[in-house]
Amino acid sequence: QITEALLKERDKQAKWNGIPLLLQKLYEHSHPNSDFSQCQSILKEISPLLSMEAMAFVTEDRKVAQESTFPNTYTFDLFGGVDLLVEILMRPTLITQKKKQKISDDLIKDCLSILYNTCICTEGVTRRLAERNDFVLFLFTLMTNKKTFLQTATLIEDILGVKKEMIQLDDIPNLASLVSSFDQQQLANFCRILAVTISELDTGSDDKHTLLAKNAQQKKNLGPSRAEINQATLLNIPGFIERLCKLATRKVSETTGTSSFLQELEEWYTWLDNALVLDALMRVANEEAEQSSTESSDESGLANTSTRTQLPQSMKIMHEIMYKLEVLYVLCVLLMGRQRNQVHKMIAEFKLIPGLNNLFDKLIWRKHSASALVLHGHNQNCDCSPDITLKIQFLRLLQSFSDHHENKYLLLNSQELNELSAISHKANIPEVDAVVNTDRSLVCDGKRGLLTRLLQVMKKEPAESSFRFWQARAVESFLRGTTSYADQMFLLKRGLLEHILYCIVDSECKSRDVLQSYFDLLGELMKFNIDAFKRFNKYINTDEKFQIFLNQINSSLVDSNMLVRCITLSLDRFENQSDAKVAEVLSECRLLSYMSQMSMRMSFLFRLINIIHVQTLTQENVSCLNTSLVILMLARRKEKLPFYLRTLQQMEYTEKYPGFILNNFHSLLRFWQQHYLNKDKDSTCLENSSCISFTYWKETVSILLSPDRTSPCAIVSYIDEAYMDIDRDFSEE
To answer: How many domains does the chain have?
Structure first.
């Protein structure tokens, strides 16, 4: 509506670089009946003005970048450029079938890359586009065209990243045929987009949310979440999981070239967080290689060729790593979702595990890869480089794959499975059903299974490496569930116990996360296993070493309470056995002797109850409550419950603060009932890990919470009337 003359006049002063005039021309040439032929040449003029700014933005530090430094994209948006391009792109969808307009691929490409550049540089544009649901769903339809796939995917990823509401994959027109039209490369990039649509929005800090808040949230959300619905949608696409497994396990076709490519790519990392950018680079690199091979073959040409053709090879590996990252992430999320069993079945059938096993040395844990790079001051989830992220993603996949699932035995090869059977026969115990039922055609092949390979790299890992946490979690999830003597012995024979103790005691590990994962693993490895306690005593063979071990346990009970629980349960079982070997270990083992002292058990119980409160309970520290319950259930079996409660009361008086432990414990147990007696709650975990029936857990809690002040097993009998503070209700705040 502004006259051309006025725009021209203001242009120089305002430093608009002629953008408003170009937009005016574009508007005139894009009316409903135009053939768009002129549009492209106009866009070709606008495009370089914006792409220069986008490059500057990407290469500079993004935080420093302010709107003021990107006047062209700002002007472009100010004069309605963004809305105009959206309108041009979507024009064909508005016109009736008869006179369908075709926009050329090049025009679509130009529109998309200009939109992407504007999104990068100008605040708020991405958010505005994200609010237009029709446009977001329309973008997916553009992905069917190979020529515009990269630009479309990059833009969609940016938009979904800021979208407040998660999109429903069901709403995408012809999703199944869209996915089946992708080649493997496109499918891998599509996984990057899918990641946003299948992950719950706040899973990152899952352990940190209080259980009160979570329970309140669950009451509100009755149906499945959008992410869960999207997961189900994906599983219903024919052949989807099979193709992901193929992608995850395919080999980098050629042998690896140069080993120095990590350094070559170091400077790219700043903005190579995107496989799409890599695709573009790959094209350039491949074209360069083709060019250089057609150049004259004199010496300079030859020298040129070698340096030029090395890069594409190293990029191919980087490329493959980035693809696998996206794919493993999607598989991992699906393995943890509601359809877990269905996904498990498919993943086993399509041989994901043996496939990853074959890639382990060459790609996942390559010699010269960044595993030696210790992450300075970064947190565990920092993805400094694709190499590091791939390892963490791989370990997370192993963890969710073997956690409480029979398929975990696919992580072994046939010989290793035979070894498990032999261990059971030798110990004269029945074989685990899951081992007998494992389909041998689906297990790992080669000299070693995936679990054994993992143990090998775990032992070589530098002390302060951030992978230790994930490695320990992956091995621990293999042991979780009902305790299996054969599984424990399999790992004990491979020196795992000594390795863990070396890390806890000799290298005096300081990282809280790593310590917690090592304590949990140690607990699973030693539980009820007399041989493990014998080995422990052999390794921790001086009072000094034992003291360091105790200091590590006591430094944070939230981290070590699962180990305390394991020792308490094991001690109880050993004391009830009349076996000479057991009796010998009981008398010699420092750890068991220490825990058999009543005063030590009471000290643990007192501290476990003291460090948690209903308002601060999370997924991570609720185990302290269950460990304190285990100590009291074992006391109840021996009819010592009143003695324990009386001792807690005396300890309160010694601390000059009557009632503070028992009132707190009373509230915690009421919360326990609310939390675990919920119909959706899975109580088998508590049963499996303790070998105490859930009925006994429930009974013990009821007895402790009895309101009868004359009952010797009721908490209230041990709180003086004056200090009673148990009737408050939990608020969900």
So the answer is: 2
Q: Any idea what the CATH number is for the domain that residue 1 is in?
A: 1.25.10
In a domain, 20, yes or no: yes
pTM: 0.84
345: tokens are: 């079945």
- How far is CA 624 from its chain centroid? 24
Can you tell me the distance from the alpha carbon of 690 to that of 681, in angstroms, rounded to the nearest whole number? Answer: 17
> Residue by residue, what is the 3-state secondary structure of 341-380?
HHHHHHHHHCCHHHHHHHHHHHHHCCCCCHHHCCCCCCCC
Instruction: State mean pLDDT over 237-262.
Output: 72
Residue 42 lies in a domain: yes
The alpha carbon dihedral of 217, 222, 228, 230 has a sign of: negative
User: How far from chain centre, in Å, is Cα 100?
Assistant: 45
Cβ-Cβ contacts under 8 Å for 359 (sequence gap 6 or more): 249, 251
pLDDT (tens digit, 9 = 90+) per residue, 331-362? 999 999 989 999 999 999 999 999 999 988 87
Q: Both tokens of residue 542? A: 């001086």
pLDDT digits (tens, 9 = 90+) for 602-655: 999 999 999 999 999 998 899 999 999 999 999 999 999 999 999 999 999 998
Question: Which of the listed residues 144, 164, 184 is the one where a domain comes to its end?
Answer: 164
List the alpha helices (DSSP H) in 540-659: 543-555, 557-575, 580-588, 590-596, 598-610, 622-637, 641-654
Q: Is the dihedral of CA 59, 65, 71, 74 positive or negative?
A: positive
Q: List the alpha helices (DSSP H) in 224-274.
A: 226-235, 240-249, 261-266
Mean pLDDT across the stretch 393-401?
94
CA-CA distance, 623 to 613, in Å (whole number)?
Answer: 12
213 Cα distance to chain centroid: 22
Alpha-carbon Rg for the chain in angstroms? 31
Question: Is 484 a member of any domain?
Answer: no
Token pair, residue 28, equals 């005139």
Q: Which of the listed residues 130, 164, 198 is the one where a domain comes to its end?
A: 164
Cα–Cα distances in Å, from 520 out to 69, 78, 472, 500, 620?
52, 57, 9, 11, 12
The residue whose two tokens read 């705040």 is 733
pLDDT of residue 585: 95
Mean pLDDT of 79-87: 75
Q: Is residue 27 part of a domain?
A: yes
CB atoms within 10 A of CB 539: 15
pLDDT in tens, 264-298: 343 333 333 444 455 555 555 555 555 555 544 44
Q: Which structural domain, as residue segments, surrounds residue 712?
A: 608-615+632-732
